[in-house]
Amino acid sequence: MTSRRDFLTLLLGAPMAAWACRASRPPTTPPGQLLSTGAELGHRWVRDGRAPAPQTFTRHQVVVVGGGVAGLTAAWALARRGVRDCVVLELDEQLGGTARGASSAVTPYPWGAHYIVAPTAAQHELTALLTELGAIEGYDDHGAPIVDEALRCREPEERIFYRGRWYEGLYLRAGASADDLRQLDVFQAEIDRWASWRDASGARAFTLPVSQCSQDPEVTGLDRQSFAAWLDERELRSPRLRWLCDYACRDDYGLLASSTSAWAGLFYFAARQTGAKVDPQPVVTWPDGNFPLVRHLAEAAVTRVRAVVSSVTQGPDGARVVAHTDAGPVGFLAERVIVAVPRFVAAKIVEPLRAAAAVASAPSDYGAWAVANLHLRDRPRQVMGAPRAWDNVLYQSKSLGYVTATHQQGRDVGPTVLTWYYPFTDDDAAGARRAISGAGQPEWAETALADLSRAHPGLRDLVTRVDVAFWGHGMIRPKVGSLWHPQRLAAATPVGRIHFAHTDLSGMALFEEAFDHGNRAAREVALALATR
Amino acid sequence: MSDEPKPTAPPSAAESSGPSAAESSGPSATEHSERAERMAPPPVPQAPGHARPAPGPEASAERAAPAPVTRLPVTALYLNVFVVATCGLVYELLAGTLGSYLLGDSVTQFSLVIGLYLSAMGAGAWLSRRIEGNLAQRFLDVELAVAVVGGLAVPVLFLAFPSVDHFQLLLLSFVFAIGVLVGLEIPLLMRLLEGQLAFKDLVSRVLTFDYIGALVAALLFPLLLVPKLGLVRTSLLMGVANGLVAVWGSYLLASSLRRPWAIRARALAVTAGLLLGVWKADALTTRAEDNMYADPIVLSKSSHYQRIVITRGRSGFQLFLNGNLQFSSADEYRYHEALVHPAMLAATTPPRRVLVLGGGDGLALREILAYPSVREVTLVDLDPAMTSLARTFPLLSKLNRAAVSDPRVRIVNDDAMVWVAEHPPARGQAWDAIIVDFPDPNNYALGKLYTKLFYRRLAAQLAPGGAVAVQATSPLFARRSYWCIVETMRAAGWSTHPYQVAVPSFGVWGYVLARREDFAPPERVPSLPLRFLNDTALAGMFRFSADIGPLEVEVNQLDNQALVRYYEREWQRWE
Ligand SMILES: Cc1cc2nc3c(=O)[nH]c(=O)nc-3n(C[C@H](O)[C@H](O)[C@H](O)COP(=O)(O)OP(=O)(O)OC[C@H]3O[C@@H](n4cnc5c(N)ncnc54)[C@H](O)[C@@H]3O)c2cc1C
C-alpha cells in the first residue's frame, strides 16, 4: 500500500490530503475492523475454484441462491403463497447482502442501504411487508398507505456543509444568485412535468419499481444521453444545481451525472413525486437502515449462511445446486431455483448462462463503495449554522458525508454512530478497485476522519472505533445506454427451472428493485409449481 | 424584575452558543483593557493633590535625604490603608453574599461569615507580632497574598460549588484565610509607620482611613460592584486593587526593600494574572450573560445538555435554561398549580402513580406530592445536573419542599422520547396521571417531544381513566404554536381541553388537559394548601378570549416539525 498521504490524495484530492497531513507526527488511528463482505469466499469458491461434487443431493421444492434483499423477498413471497419447502443459501456469515446492518451497545447502524421511499398506493407488496412490520399507521384519502411517523425521516432530514458552515437542506441556497434560483425553478418544472406525465396506457414515466415505468420511447429514449448532457441541452449550468444533480447520482448510483443515464438521473427526482407540485414521498428509515426489512423477510425463510454456491445446473429431474460449506460440498436438488446473486456472479455459476456468456453479455458495470462506521463517545460540538440532521453532506468532498444512526430514535445527545459513505465514481471501476486494493482499516479510517474533520474539528478525539466495509462490486451502475438495453430486459427471463432475481435486473441498485424482482421470481415459481 | 415573556431565544440560540460567546468576548476584552489602563499606576508615584504637603514627593525626598531612619511617604501609605480596608470589607461582603446565594438563608450565612471574618482578623492581628525582619517586605508579601486569595475566592468558590461536597467548609476556609491576611495588614502598616509620626496621630489617621475604606466598600458593593460587575469580577478586581497596592508599595517602600524590583515583578505578575482572570471571567459567567439577566447571577453552570443559570433579585430567584426563563420564584406557584392540579383532578380515580416528563426543577413534584393518594412518582428529565440541583441547591430544594428527595419519587435521567418508547408500562403499571413540562419547542431536539408520535407513545403509558396535562407555550405570544400542540394531541387520538392562566413573569400561558376518552374538565378544587387555584380560577382557565382563540394549523409530526417553524416565526415578533 502507498503512504497515508498518497491514499488520501487518491480519495479526497491533493489539497485535502495536504490539510489532513499537516501535522508532523501522524496521529494514532482509532481501532476497528474491516468487515468481511463475502468477497474472499466468493473469490475462492466462485472466481478461482469450484466446490467438488457432493455425495448426495437433498431435495427441496425451491432453492434460493443469495440471501440479500432479492433472495429473502423471494422466500418471503413464496411463503405467503404457501410454498414453505424453500431454502436460502447465502455465501456470507450474515444475511442481507448490501442491506445488512449491525448493532453496538449504543445503537443499531447500517452497513449499506439506509433508506427506502415510502410506498405509493400502487406498491401493494411493499405495503404488505410494511404492514407486517407494523409500520403502516393508516391510509390517506386516496388510499395511499401512511408509513408510521416513527419511521418517516425526522426533520431536519439533511444539511450541507459549505465553507465552514452548515446549511439546511441539500440545495445550497445561501449565496445563490437570482439566475441560480431561476435555473432551480426550471429544473423543478421539468421534474414536475415528468412527475405528471402519463403514457397512453396511463403508466407513469418514472415510478418505483422500474418495471412499472412507461416504456414509451419518449421516456426510454432518455437513456441514450447522459444526465449532464440533458442538463446542458436545457442550459442548466448553475454550479449549485449541477452539484445537486451530481450528488443525486453519486448518492443513489455511485456515478457522476456525466456518466449517468439521463433516464436514471430524472428517475431519482421524478419517481419520488406522484404528481406535479406534490411533495416527494417521505424517506423511510430505521437506525440500522434497511436491515430491519431484511430481518423480517428472513423470519419466513429457512436460511443457510456460509454456503457458497458454485454451480447451478438443470436436468430432467430438477435443478442441481452445489455449494461449498464449512462441512464440505453440499448438493441440492430442487424443482425450481431462484438465483438472487449479482449478475456477474450468476454468469459464473449458472451453467446455461456460462455457456451463453461468451456469446453476448449486457453491459454491466459495478461501482465500488467504502462505508465506515465511526463510533463516537459524544457528539461533535455544534458550531455554526443549521442544526444536526440525519444526512450530513459535505459540499466540497468526494464522499457523501454521513448519516447519524441515532437521529431517527430521537437520541440527540451522547454517544452515537456515524455512517460515512464513499462511492468510487471513476468510470473505470476495475481500475479504481485495483488502485485501492490492499487498503485496510487504518487507511479507510484515516480517510473518513480526514474528510469529516473539516466539518467537525476535533472529531478524532471523540471517535472510539472505526469499522469499515469495502464493497468492491457494491452496485450496478446505470450508465448511459444500460437501462433500456434489450439485454437487461431479457436477463430476467427464466431459463428452464432457473429463475432470476436481483436488483441488477433493474440496472440500478435499490431496495425496491431487489424487492420487486424477488416478488416477481416468487410469482413465476409459485405459478410453475401450481401448474406442474 | 424580569417581566419578559418567557423563552425568547430564537431556535438557533442554543445551537449557536459557541460563536455568540466567541463574538461577545471581542468587545468585552477591549473594555477590560481600557479599564486596566485607567487603573494602572502612574509611572512616577505622586501624592494625591489634596494630601498634606508634609513629606513631599517620595522620589526627591529619598534622593535628598538618605537618612538613617528612612522617611516614608506617609500620605501615600494612608491611601494604601484605605484601599486595603475597602478591599477587605468587599471580600467579607462577597463571601456573605455568595454564601446566602448558594446556600440560602442569608441571615445565617451573613452572620456566620462576618463572625468568622472578624475573629480571623483578630487572629491575624495577634499573629502580626510574630512577624519580624524586613517589615516592608513582609507587608508587601501579605498584600500580594490577599490579592491572590481574595481575588480568586469567588471564582474558585463558584467553580467548586457544583462539584464540592462540603461547600460551606470551603467557603468558610476562604473567609478565614482572607480574614487572617487582612488582619495582618493594618498592624504591619502601623509598625511600618511607627516613628514617622506621633503614636496618637498614627492611630487616629490609620483608623480613620480604615473606616472610610469600610464605608466606601459598604456603599460601592450593593450600588455599583454587584449590579455592574457581578460577584466574580468584583472579587477579581479587588484582587487587582490589592495587587496594585503592592506594586505601588514597591515604589513607596523602595528604600526599605532589599530587592524592590523582585517584589515589583511578582506584584505585577499577580496583578496581570488577576486582570487576565477578569477578562477570562467571561468564560465563567460571560459578560454577555450578565447583561442578559436583569438580576445578578448566583449560579451558572454548563451541563452536558444546557446552560443552567439562576439569578436572584429583590422579588426572588429565577431559573433559566439556555437563556430561557423557566420560572420565577415569585409567581411559579401560578404556573405549577395550573400545570398539575387539573390533570390530578380529571383522572377518574385519585391518582396513585404519576409520571412527570421534564420538570427537573421539582416544582411540579411538589404539587403532585400534596395529594395523599399518590404512592409513586417517576420523573424523567434529560439533565442529571438539573435534577441534582433541584435536590441539593438550597434555594431550589426549599422551593420544591425537598420533593426530589421524597421517598415516593424516582428520578430517571433520559430523553423522554426514548424513555417512553423503551419503557412500555407493564400490566397494571400504567400511569394515572402524566404531567408533561418540557421547555418550549425552540429547536428540533425539543420539537420531537411535541409530535403526534410522542403523544401516541404517551397514550400507551396512561392507565384507563387517567389524564395528562401538557405545558404548551403561550397562546398569546405563540398562538399558532399553542393550537398546533392542541391539534397534534387531537390527531394522536386524545380528547382535549385547552386551558390557560396568567403568570406575570411569562404572560398568558397555555396548557392542554387530555384524556383518551371524552370527559368534562374538573370543577372542584380539593382542600389542599393552594395559593392560586380555587373553583373560580379553575373555571376561568378553560375560557379563551378572542385574541388567543383557535387557529387553523398543521399537525406537528416528526418529519415536518411544523411546530418548531411556527414557534420560531411567532417568537421572533416579540424580540
Ligand atoms: C453502500 C451502499 C449503500 C446503499 N444504499 C441504499 C439505500 O440507501 N437505499 C436503497 O434502496 N438501496 C441502497 N443500496 C442498494 C441496495 O443495498 C441493494 O439494491 C439491495 O439491497 C440489493 O439486494 P439484492 O438482494 O438484489 O443484492 P445483494 O445485496 O447483492 O445480495 C446478494 C446476496 O447474494 C450473496 N451471494 C453472492 N454470491 C453468492 C454465491 N455464490 N452463493 C451464495 N450467495 C451468494 C451475497 O453475499 C449477497 O448476500 C446501497 C448499496 C450499497 C452498496
Overview of the structural elements:
- The complex is a heterodimer of chains A (532) and B (575).
- Chain A is an alpha/beta fold.
- Chain A has helices spanning 4-12, 14-20, 39-47, 69-80, 124-132, 178-196, 217-220, 227-233, 239-253, 262-270, 291-299, 343-349, 351-357, 429-435, 441-453, 459-462, 486-491, 511-530; strands at residues 34-35, 57-65, 86-89, 101-103, 108-110, 116-117, 136-139, 145-147, 158-162, 165-168, 283-284, 302-304, 308-315, 318-325, 328-339, 366-376, 391-394, 402-404, 416-423, 463-476, 498-500.
- Chain A folds into three domains: 4-30 and 366-476, Polyamine Oxidase, Chain A, domain 2 (Alpha-Beta Complex), CATH 3.90.660; 47-99 and 290-362 and 481-530, FAD/NAD(P)-binding domain (3-Layer(bba) Sandwich); 178-281, Guanine Nucleotide Dissociation Inhibitor, domain 1.
- Chain A has an eight-stranded mixed sheet. In chain A, strands 2, 3, 12, 13, 14, 15 and 21 form a seven-stranded mixed sheet that branches. Chain A has a two-stranded antiparallel sheet with strand order 4-5.
- In chain A, helix 9 (239-253) crosses helix 10 (262-270).
- The N and C termini of chain A lie far apart (56 Å).
- In chain B, strand 2 and strand 3 form a beta hairpin.
- In chain B, helix 4 (74-103) runs parallel beside helix 6 (135-160).
- Chain B has helices at 12-15, 17-39, 58-64, 74-103, 106-128, 135-160, 167-193, 199-252, 260-284, 287-292, 332-346, 363-369, 384-392, 394-399, 416-422, 444-447, 452-459, 479-491, 535-541, 562-572; strands spanning 297-302, 307-313, 316-321, 324-328, 353-358, 376-380, 409-412, 431-437, 462-471, 495-503, 507-515.
- The two termini of chain B are 18 Å apart.
- Classes of the chains: A alpha/beta (532), B alpha/beta (575).
- Chains A and B meet through loops of A and helix 15, helix 16 and helix 17 of B.
